Amino acid sequence: MSYRAPVDDMAFTLKQVAGLSEMLEQGAYPDLADDLVEAILEEAGRFATEEIAPRNAKADMEGCQLQENGTVSTPEGWKELYQTWAEGGWNALTGPEEFGGQGLPLQMAAAAMDMWNQGSMGFAIGPTLTMGSVEALEKHASKELKDKYLAKLVSGEWMGTMNLTEPSAGSDLNAMRTKAEPVGDGTYKIIGQKIFITYGDHELTDNIIHLVLARLPDAPAGTRGISLFLVPKYIVNDDGSLGEKNDLRAAGVEHKMGIHASATCTMAFGDNGGAIGWLIGEENRGLACMFTMMNNARLMVGIQGVGVAERATQQAEAYAAERKQGKRVGAPKDGEMEPILVHPDVKRNLMTMKALTEAVRSISYRCAFALDQTNLALAKGDAKSAKHWQERAGILTPIAKAFSTDIGSEVASIGVQVHGGMGYIEETGAAQHMRDARIAQIYEGTNGIQAIDLVTRKLPLSDGAAVKEMLVEMSIWAKRAAESEDGRLALCGEEMIESLEDLNFATEWLLSSLKDGKPNLALAGATPFLRLFGLTLGGILMIKGTILSSEQQHSSAAKRLALLRFYCVNLLPQTTSLLDAIVNGAESVMETDVVFDGL
Amino acid sequence: MSYRAPVDDMAFTLKQVAGLSEMLEQGAYPDLADDLVEAILEEAGRFATEEIAPRNAKADMEGCQLQENGTVSTPEGWKELYQTWAEGGWNALTGPEEFGGQGLPLQMAAAAMDMWNQGSMGFAIGPTLTMGSVEALEKHASKELKDKYLAKLVSGEWMGTMNLTEPSAGSDLNAMRTKAEPVGDGTYKIIGQKIFITYGDHELTDNIIHLVLARLPDAPAGTRGISLFLVPKYIVNDDGSLGEKNDLRAAGVEHKMGIHASATCTMAFGDNGGAIGWLIGEENRGLACMFTMMNNARLMVGIQGVGVAERATQQAEAYAAERKQGKRVGAPKDGEMEPILVHPDVKRNLMTMKALTEAVRSISYRCAFALDQTNLALAKGDAKSAKHWQERAGILTPIAKAFSTDIGSEVASIGVQVHGGMGYIEETGAAQHMRDARIAQIYEGTNGIQAIDLVTRKLPLSDGAAVKEMLVEMSIWAKRAAESEDGRLALCGEEMIESLEDLNFATEWLLSSLKDGKPNLALAGATPFLRLFGLTLGGILMIKGTILSSEQQHSSAAKRLALLRFYCVNLLPQTTSLLDAIVNGAESVMETDVVFDGL
Predict the structure, then answer these.
(1) Is the pLDDT of residue A333 over 90?
(2) Are strands B159-163 and B179-182 parallel, antiparallel or unpaired?
(3) How many CA atoms lie within 13 A of A498 on its CB side?
(4) B308-363: pLDDT as tens digits
């Protein structure tokens, strides 16, 4: 295993392609100098490479179990790994400075999270949830709650969880049943069961802060009757010390396909009368509080796809460079066997892995950039800019989540294939990446739901103007490439202009379908549309990276051109067939009563 | 779990689309009446549905372990299942009548194997290997060996294995090291280690017949110095009773991603001087013997993809019809939640699964038809017809193997997605299908190797005439559809004509590249070409099924048209982008030294 966090390439994509350097130059983050960015990424890369990555396979094999005493075991060394990581300040990267955080832009978190996921998806998903908890408390909790909990969540001394799902309430939270009864002293008794709770219980930290959605008595039906509560595993005394265990427990740990190092728990609240909870934000506004953190959480799950794709690619490339079978065409008959990387079919596999990984990394980092711009504009009170970037981030988020995680799985699967029979043997590690990657397409809103969000909520933003403005910006890079004197880059630009036409056409068609009262036709095309958008956007950002790296004579310039060229000629042509599926395929999706027995 | 073998649809595809009825009408199988075909399929379907399928999940959880006493454990009830199955005569379906087999066409085995794999991939792969052993012995072994072993392998009283792979000799068998030393009495001592041996050891049967590739002393280097040996687990006495244990053992059982019910063993031959083996066929001609059975084995692995796709599809559809989340667009706000199957995105997922499953089933059965035609022509001594069908089967086999297994994995992965979070929980079963399906893309020659075989060995058959004749035949069905009075079918025909143009163009381009001394360009496009071929051929066969089912007023007619229509508008347009990747993408695959550090 020769994994190494590719810090230089990631830094270039972050600074130049996403645009962090642009923000730094404009003085957006006075405390963040260019060399500090590099130093942080270098150090994160070192931690991912040396500390996290080597433990990934073993943690997968050990997994987490519910013990007889009701606690949940974690893999050997996992607690020490987490504590070393938190003590290194990594959990506090983006946390509010008021509570001990470093207040760094989300772009830095994106790059760091990319590396933690390269190291281990099962590790990185825990802190992702804590980050979300910090955000929800920071934006919605009372000063009292903030003072009591935020510092320790920011430092990582405690971890946070999100408790949304119930057996009958998954993607549709209307049916949620968990109850919250006011005690009268400002607290609530929480009673109910939640499922699929990531890092729901463990002993990595002394306390766990659960954010729980529940219904107040007489709350309106549906999602407008849901409130958000803070429910600590151990009650926190006024002096900050830990008191009694709260009335909650892990009632089960799921047996999953992957991310075995992450305990996915069924949580039982109120076996003995009710777990004590505190309201976050207003009554019946819990879903809005949750939605605040959804954007970031979705981006961070997208980055899981990026991270696992990177890891799988490195592993496959190392194997292909080492494993000898066959010879290149034309080699002497009696010559030695050569590394399989000489075979064109293996080259194609590895080029596909590398090009797609760069595409989804660029999209995800760019999404973080848009979220950072939003926060900056809000902080400045610049409403116009805030709206612009909020809409841009709104469009980018479902693409970053769904396209990146689809690619994560696809790349990890190609990685298995490159290993041949060894890929199917668990000890090799390639299968783990594929098993781990698979969940990211599902949680934080399935990729189908992301596609529906993109089509039905994001395309119509500002009556379609938001997406159209974005498409115009994208076309500028395509034209720059098409006008290049380098014939290879010019060809990429031309391919990209065609794909942009497909994307424009599909966008208009979907907007018209929605306006003309044919929402089912738009919904039927949502998934191919998200892929069409992702493929095109990824290519545009790779053009940007190629042009800028060439201008700046960055060490990655030649490689970026080769990857771009491969991408534009081999993968980008798919946009035409995706457009077909969207525009011509919808009716064939809906007129299927004969297939589904009239359902 | 509401799995049921879809016998009616399968029978129609087998008889009308593949062409079994055509052969029956021509009197190819005088003993096989139409109602016998139906009866056999019905009974196989019952066995798969009632006996195999219910044991699949539990067997996956239990797996196989190497015991301290050196034996390999199998899942509880597995031995009884296998024995009931063999006693039902299922193992003998295609075996030679001379040795107790039923001598049925391979098409019947294909449909039956489809069902065994629907029931459990981990089960079906065992008998697949026995079938291969029967074939190798029947075609190449001496009368003495046949008389001693064939009847019991045909009945399934004993099982067979194939021992090819060694740690340094996988896809490239040149480096094989296992030795065979002549004892002088007509036997050989086999010494060496083989890996990835499917059903390498178990106690389902009293004996296991290993077919082992090994090198004689002073054999030529490379694959022309490899011989094939029969090496029984227990020596068989002249009276047919079992004698001493041979000098071989399972030295390890792999910890795999899936098909846990199938023990994948490392086999050690000759720890104590040498396992006794008997030569099959001629010295140094072992690879040719192995290749005899390769075609059938590759088809049967392709059918694993078909079977697991069918099972995953049924499971996803049942879940989608039951699981309630959200409501269809336009439903009353206060209405109840509806099954997720009402959502267009879920419909798209299920239609994709169903359409692709029918496509790969049609291709696989058609491949079995071509193999049956070959055998028939050989039996008749009709050399011209034999050559024709041998070439046709040669073209169809890598497509049936690789396209079907790629689709098996893709469909199983969509199945996980339809289940949402539940799909990632092992107890649901959807994840098992995805884990199981993954191996079929790898073993019996990776799908990359199948693509290379298709492009470099099969396209050039009869100087390209074989494939061109096939393309002409395909175009006839496309034209028939295009000329249909049903506008929906006509549209499909038109789409298909376009895809056939893509396929024709790609075929010519690849043949030219090979002729012009640019094999690397052809090799670089092999994988997208195989997919282009598979997508187009699958659609053509679905057109055939749609037209014939409509003409014959078969119950599946309306459903076949709906699936075809979905397929042609949503999936078939991919052929254009695949053509692009083949023709324009090859150089971008090869000019990548800058990416791979000059390797």
Answers:
(1) no
(2) unpaired
(3) 16
(4) 999 999 999 999 999 999 999 989 988 899 999 999 999 999 999 999 999 999 99
Taking alpha carbons only, the member of A519, A453, A165, A399 closest to residue B342 is A519
Chain B residues closer than 8 Å to A170 by CB: 325, 420-421
Is the ipTM above a cut-off of 0.90? yes
pLDDT tens profile A451-472: 999 999 999 999 999 999 999 9
pLDDT at B597: 72
Superfamily of domain B7-141+150-155: Acyl-CoA dehydrogenase/oxidase, N-terminal domain (1.10.540.10)
How far apart, in Å, are the Cα atoms of A69 and each of A65, A426, A583, B68, B154? 11, 31, 57, 32, 54
Cα separation, B452 vs B536, in Å, equals 18
- B443 min Cα distance to partner chain A (Å): 7
Domain ranges of chain B: 7-141+150-155, 159-284, 447-590
Distance CA A312, CA A417 (A): 11
Find, in chain B, the residue whose alpha carbon is nearest to that of A584.
Answer: B569
Q: Is-contact A65 A75, C-beta < 8 A?
A: no
User: For residue B66, what are the β-bridge partners?
Assistant: B72
A40-44 contact pairs (CB < 8 A, 24+): A40/A93, A40/A104, A40/A108, A40/A112, A41/A7, A41/A10, A41/A11, A41/A14, A41/A108, A41/A111, A41/A112, A41/A115, A42/A7, A43/A88, A44/A5, A44/A90, A44/A111, A44/A112, A44/A115, A44/A116
From B43, B444, B473, B587, the catalytic residue: B444
Comparing CA positions, the residue from A240, A161, A242 lying closest to residue A208 is A161
pTM as predicted: 0.98
pLDDT at position A335, please? Answer: 87
**Angle in degrees, CA B99, B100, B101, rounded to 5:** 100
| H helices, E strands: number in chain A | 20, 10
pLDDT at residue B2, as a whole number = 82
Residues of chain B with pLDDT under 50: 598
CATH for the stretch B159-284 = 2.40.110.20
- A595 → closest Cβ in B254, B325, B354: B354
Cβ-Cβ contacts under 8 Å, B423 against chain A: 442
Beta bridge mates, B277? B188
Topology of the domain comprising A7-155: Butyryl-Coa Dehydrogenase, subunit A; domain 1 (1.10.540)
